[in-house]
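ingest -> fold -> write
write: protein_1
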Amino acid sequence: MTDETKDLQPAASAAPVAQAPASSSPVSQTPASPAAIKAEGSGLPEEEIARLTDDIVAALKTVYDPEIPADIYELGLIYKVDIKDDRALDVDMTLTTPNCPSAAELPIMVENAVASVRGVGNVKVQVVWDPPWDPSRMSDEARLVLNMW
């Protein structure tokens, strides 16, 4: 089977969660690329990868930063989810700031949410800082909730 890549796109938003070029204004910038689920060289059937993708996105959308009334997926805090052949997941996420008061609890909340998806094996969540998060990563849904137009 060839490498499979499924884009994680916010379900209720017209625009995907994305990275913006460093030279652009965050509010006027249209998101450029969504977070992605990868199942490289996986022996899993395409239908199973699609189901896992949908279920993982749904699980991620249940996790909220306690200080922000938008879920972490729509905020653009999830950068990547890799599905291994044994169904283990590696999740790369970031925080809105290195000084985030929820820095200790959010990765655990993400791990627990994704681990609850039927068919998922071990989950490893890593907090990354590159690229740094900025408001241009938010979906239109998050912008609406936070009134950040």
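write: protein_2
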Amino acid sequence: MSGTIEGHPRKAVNPRRYFESVETRSLEPERAPVCLYLETTNRCNLLCTTCPRTYAELEPPADMSWELFTSIVEQVPNLARAVLHGVGEPMLVKDLPRMVRYLKERSTYVLFNTNGTALNERNGRALIEAELDELRVSFDAANAKSYRAIRGKDYFNRICKNVRAFRALQEREGHEKPRVSAWLTGLRETVEQLPEFVQLAADTGVKEVYLQRLVFFDQDAIGHARPDQALYERLSG
């Protein structure tokens, strides 16, 4: 993207690396918003021990309506990147492929994290047809025992099967998008599984692996979201 905002030149934005160019010299924004995080749902079918929604109902379960979704997107005409997840599981949302397509028609880079439980062939094909750019699968463990301890349910083998089948579908039919990656939250309890996790990704056909920082609570820590489980035991610096 390039152009001007109120007479000022606007630098090109790489939707995969947009955050690297964020600088400010005053309280006046240098450009209009280019990225949106849209919590398409707060519902989830797992009970992750790193997530606050497992321990408290912060708000009534709900999906973002199509009307609310479009009204937000239409307020950001230069949108370069949209992330369609929050504390919920996006693939539980019926309108998700339609949302992706709506954004792609506006030349927006679209991605979201998923736990992979709903990644069946029908849903996978819908995301391919909608031209989703990136699909980030949060495995969060390298084996079934650790997965159950971290994510609260025994879905490890199901997720592996889903991802393996989806990647096989992509390879068989020549679909380069979405780019699929495997994610592991950095917990002291599971970080030693990283080599095994890389092998798991290879076994399921995934070519990218990411270690994700744990977001924890300094006070009133819950589950695994606590300082002693974080790799650095602090939130900054």
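write: annotation protein_2
The beta strands are 3-5, 8-10, 35-37, 81-83, 109-114, 134-138, 179-185, 208-212.
The first strand starts at residue 3 and ends at 5.
pipeline exit 0
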